[in-house]
Amino acid sequence: MKLKMIGCNHRQAAVEFREQLSFTAEQAREALAAFRNRFPAAEVVLLSTCNRIELYTGAADGPIPDDQDVAGFLAHQRSLPADGLLDHLVHLDGPEAIEHLFTVAASLDSMVIGEAQIISQVKQAYELACDSGSTGPLTHAAFQAANHVAKRVDRETSIHRRRVSVPSVAVGEVVPEFFDTLSDKSIVLIGAGEMGEETLRYLIDAGAKRIHVVNRSLDRAQEIVGRLAGTAHPWSDLDALLTKADLVVSTTGATDTLIGYDNFLKIHEARYERLLLILDLAVPRDFEHSIGDLAGVYLYSVDDLQSACDHNQQQRQREWPKAKSIIEEETRKFVAEIHHRATGPVIRRLREQAEQLKQEELKRLMGRLQHKEEESAAMQREIQQSFDRLVNKLLHPPLASLKDDAAAGHRGGLLVALRELFKLHDHE
């Protein structure tokens, strides 16, 4: 099996280095085409996310570029010096590369173990490679198996079911304690940065319909609601929206408190003590803590939610050994299957060659028996069976040894030896 992985990830490369190597979708498409032009016999899939840039190269049969060639290709694509680049990259071969791919797809190598986005990113990378014509039998098998492994880990462990980000805990675990449904609730999301966008996605997934996004930059608010959902509002609308809100989630990066106790009192009086859940995810806090003492107001800060995140992260860690065991088992199965596929053509050719020799000898013998028609039919059958037994006896030892060698990863070299000894490659 000729499969390699070369690249870097958040475990051994700083974000500044990963940024220099990262690819947009269009850049990845161009890189795949360039790779196939430079190495036409090789297959390639390029996985580029914020936390990793990895090239998976392989070939079912034939040469593939070595690590230095791949590093040089990456350097050329990203306009970086080639000298010394390989020293900053991880390079894995064969079973290690397969196990790494399975681990990545199952989200065990992610910055946040069990995060759901990575399997989609692996699928997108594979689909882009398929569309670009840069995949082949080995990468098809590897990435389809990776998808199967990820599904099995998801099905047989709870590693993906524990929320570990503050927005996911806030929307997924706190909100259901107050509201049976969000479909009829008025929701105010304050802030349209990275955390605000993540929160908006969770709110949409939770069934929220009436989401009002308020941000100091109205253009930014309009941009994310245009891509996702909700209604954008200028900052001046905030007090009026808070008066009618059922749920408020605040995610700004402000350095000072946005809503003080005295300011909120006017809003609270206009609400007539209707229930209000405030999830203040900002650091520093956007809402003065004493606001939570008002009747009908329930205020949660990041500190209140972080303990739940930590607990869920610990639960995910407990599931790690079970998930890792699944990956190791699937890696062994995959590698054994790939080695078995490699022996198949040789075995078929060996049997075909033996069968051809047998038929030639039988034809010569049968021709001599044709003048004795009554006796020849029974005799021909006996001879046919004798030759079959002879062929099977002759082929059994080498084929049994070849099977054992395949299970060991062809380390004994018997596959190559059989090709040479019986000249099987002459007819392939």
Automatic annotation (TrEMBL):
Function (record text) = Catalyzes the NADPH-dependent reduction of glutamyl-tRNA(Glu) to glutamate 1-semialdehyde (GSA).
Cite the InterPro entries for this sequence: 4pyrrol_synth_GluRdtase, 4pyrrol_synth_GluRdtase_dimer, 4pyrrol_synth_GluRdtase_N, GluRdtase_CS, GluRdtase_dimer_dom_sf, GluRdtase_N_sf, NAD(P)-bd_dom_sf, Shikm_DH/Glu-tRNA_Rdtase
Q: Which gene encodes it?
A: hemA
Which residues does the record give as NADP(+) binding sites? 191-196
Give the Glutamyl-tRNA reductase N-terminal domain ranges: 6-157
Q: How does it assemble?
A: Homodimer.
Any idea what this protein is called?
Answer: Glutamyl-tRNA reductase
* Domain Quinate/shikimate 5-dehydrogenase/glutamyl-tRNA reductase residue range list: 177-307
What species does this protein belong to? Roseimaritima ulvae
* Domain description: Possesses an unusual extended V-shaped dimeric structure with each monomer consisting of three distinct domains arranged along a curved 'spinal' alpha-helix. The N-terminal catalytic domain specifically recognizes the glutamate moiety of the substrate. The second domain is the NADPH-binding domain, and the third C-terminal domain is responsible for dimerization.
Among HAMAP family, the record links this protein to:
Glu_tRNA_reductase
Q: Which UniProt keywords apply?
A: Coiled coil, NADP, Oxidoreductase, Porphyrin biosynthesis
Q: Quote the Pfam families the UniProt record gives.
A: GlutR_dimer, GlutR_N, Shikimate_DH
Q: Give any GO molecular function from the UniProt entry.
A: NADP binding
Q: What is the lineage of its organism?
A: Bacteria, Pseudomonadati, Planctomycetota, Planctomycetia, Pirellulales
Task: List the CDD domains hit by this protein, alphabetically.
Answer: NAD_bind_Glutamyl_tRNA_reduct
